[in-house]
Amino acid sequence: MSLLRDNLQCRDFVKSGAFKGNNPAEVVQSCDITFSCVADTTAVKDLVFGNYGVLQGISKGKCYVEMSTIDEETMQDVAEAITARGGVFLESPVVGSRVPALEGQLIILAAGERKLYDECYSCFEAIGKKSLYLGADIGAATRMKLIVNMVMGTVVAGLAEAMAMAEKVGLDQEDVAEVLSVGALSCPTVIHKSQAILSQRYDPHFPLQHQQKDLRLALLLGDKVEQPLYVASAANELYKKARRLGYGESDISAVYRAASN
Amino acid sequence: MSLLRDNLQCRDFVKSGAFKGNNPAEVVQSCDITFSCVADTTAVKDLVFGNYGVLQGISKGKCYVEMSTIDEETMQDVAEAITARGGVFLESPVVGSRVPALEGQLIILAAGERKLYDECYSCFEAIGKKSLYLGADIGAATRMKLIVNMVMGTVVAGLAEAMAMAEKVGLDQEDVAEVLSVGALSCPTVIHKSQAILSQRYDPHFPLQHQQKDLRLALLLGDKVEQPLYVASAANELYKKARRLGYGESDISAVYRAASN
Amino acid sequence: MSLLRDNLQCRDFVKSGAFKGNNPAEVVQSCDITFSCVADTTAVKDLVFGNYGVLQGISKGKCYVEMSTIDEETMQDVAEAITARGGVFLESPVVGSRVPALEGQLIILAAGERKLYDECYSCFEAIGKKSLYLGADIGAATRMKLIVNMVMGTVVAGLAEAMAMAEKVGLDQEDVAEVLSVGALSCPTVIHKSQAILSQRYDPHFPLQHQQKDLRLALLLGDKVEQPLYVASAANELYKKARRLGYGESDISAVYRAASN
Amino acid sequence: MSLLRDNLQCRDFVKSGAFKGNNPAEVVQSCDITFSCVADTTAVKDLVFGNYGVLQGISKGKCYVEMSTIDEETMQDVAEAITARGGVFLESPVVGSRVPALEGQLIILAAGERKLYDECYSCFEAIGKKSLYLGADIGAATRMKLIVNMVMGTVVAGLAEAMAMAEKVGLDQEDVAEVLSVGALSCPTVIHKSQAILSQRYDPHFPLQHQQKDLRLALLLGDKVEQPLYVASAANELYKKARRLGYGESDISAVYRAASN
User: Residue B27: which of B55, B57, B5, B49 has the closest Cα?
Assistant: First the structure.
């Protein structure tokens, strides 16, 4: 039982016997564990701190699992507010984009109350292929997600530069894609993003502006802990350039347009 | 039948019935097709242009397959010299390091005489898992190899920055490695290099100074065709730093020491 | 007449006939124009929005000149709060570090109410060598300052790399400094920072961590307007490295330690 | 008395009483000290090693001053060839572009035979405002020149990014130029290049492709001595981009077009 924003999807669930709350507070009141996964920090704050929001439904023992990807500080604010009212909190952002989500292949990162993680385990098994508990420290799962997405951003930017150069030096980009697909770098990202570059189709599996936002947050995290990130910051600038070229809402692979521009 | 530098290995072949030439010229004279794979540009030049060298054994119809990874210009010089004497030339550098070589899992890139490529095909099948003919233009295979290794260099540098940051923000590097190993970036390079970083063992599967040399050559190629490479050049500087720290002869994964320094 | 944090300095002014307010509100109430210049965003917020703060002293026609360097958003919040109470606001951060301040050689950047700028003009002449009115748009002066400091950060990082390389290639760093001091790049920054690097004395004329903070803010500004900043972002990472090496409170010239490390 | 490539200029000198040699060998034979300053490595090699070239005119005690900017290795080859024939060699590249050259404001860097430097001193005084002897080690003056030009390249790239950002955030670029011209970064380069960017006129005082070539050589020097150059390499890529946009023969300030693209 969860809060569903999309009314059509919601209707199907209700038909199957689900209870539909009129607002976040009501949902939380009627559930033992509530899972939330919304677009961004603003949506999370509205949902939790707004009128008839989550906080008003939380009481001793109620469990709340925040699966949205937001900044660490907001995640900690939400956790504090919920536990202050006797609630139990788990942070659990997911790794993976549209296709893994549809196929139940997400990776779930979790931090917070261990007992709640254990209770959620079967649900996580259902929606993902792997879940990982990172300890009690709220923020740890968000940091992990940013670091993993930072690697993603660097890899795809590096791939884009290679494809751009291939064309300039008279190689067939399909050959590059083929060599990469059979070598030691062969992974879903390299294979799918090479194909996207080849086909010049940038359907947003993972929108470029989200990747760039994640790089920005990762770099700010690096700033906080005094970790220089020469390669990731160069990648970040290339994604900015792609945004300027108008590819913010395209797939991350459109960073190729910045590299080949 | 080929020129073998290591006498012990050579002895075994001779025992099995192979003919051992006393010098490159003699080897070439006694073979239809000669395969060469040596360390670097200097070795290639010595072998081909030196006294009793390959050129002195080449005559009309003799085939020569250069599998060493060297710069494009030297490759073209060798090709010209051999074809000027009636020889047939194929450029065929390989992608893959020590373990793929031992397991017959190399990728063979070839450019030059198509007929010779076809004749070599069964040999390439024996030593590699994949071969790719890139056209008649000598240099194309070398450029492809540099581009593929440029991606490799960027990926491992990006991974190194991520592992360094993970430690700074209080995450367990083993957890990062695990998440990466099951996600969309899961490939032999990411898996093995994460493990090398975790174990702090940098046995040279692919020596860091070779990776940095390949990045340098790729960047110079980019210079020639006016292709900016912001991310790869940042990665290159990080490998230079690792060399300065004394890791030139260690594995490429030792770039982690530069990132975490 | 202004709020003075340092009591000893304050005493001298009072002896000379100045009125000392007991709190920000009282200072503002007793002055036509109040100038504020404090350390950071937190200090500005306390001063303006705190108990007995500036806002409580503002009434119709009271003028407030904010000379602190803070982020654009806070500057705009302060401006709105003051004008909402009938006050008149001028944003006027200064360019220049310790020595220019002592010598009246600061550059004053201003944005906001033109009439107030004109009234302040004689004061600005007294404390600086140049003032510039950038229009009514609050935030413009802060953006200008960030951009100017971004150039500063890039120049000093570039100088540091050059001095580090000079040593590695067997040149005398004093010779580099001399050539730079007579050539087309000869400016106070290049001259003084070369000397600081030569003498290995990093007395904080402009603390490195402030430079890095300004670079971070400039990069975030670039992010907002989709302006890639490849060179400035590389410089930023080098300053981060210098912070990690423990030079955050040293002069900006200590970025040399990161470059030569 | 020197070899003059431009016949019209040469004619004026001859009218004034100068001797015109028919080839480099003849010039060297008829002079005690010959000064050479030509376009690039190829021109230097032709002049020195070609038919009727410098080497054929060198005899015991003849002095040769190479003022061209070329790579260190060629400089050393030329020095060896000349001294092997009993000649005396001085390497003396100059710092400064078209206007300083016309105004006698060049800086002359010298390395090689000290006695020859002393003999040339009055000539250097005539054509430059400053000369510096860097020791007997041939190559030192070239390395110094590359390092100084590396700083130049970084500074102008940093300036270009700042001017590009200024426009994006709604500031008047003239205001940026004015603030920079009165502050601690005020130097001929910053002043003139700001003006070039403002006027959108890129008359080649120092051609961009030469700046990029110098950056490439400086980075290769850094590679040799294991000196990471994160900022200079980012600048180098930006100049590459400007070359791709067609500004190779424009002034170095046209790097702005790459930054604002």
Answer: B57
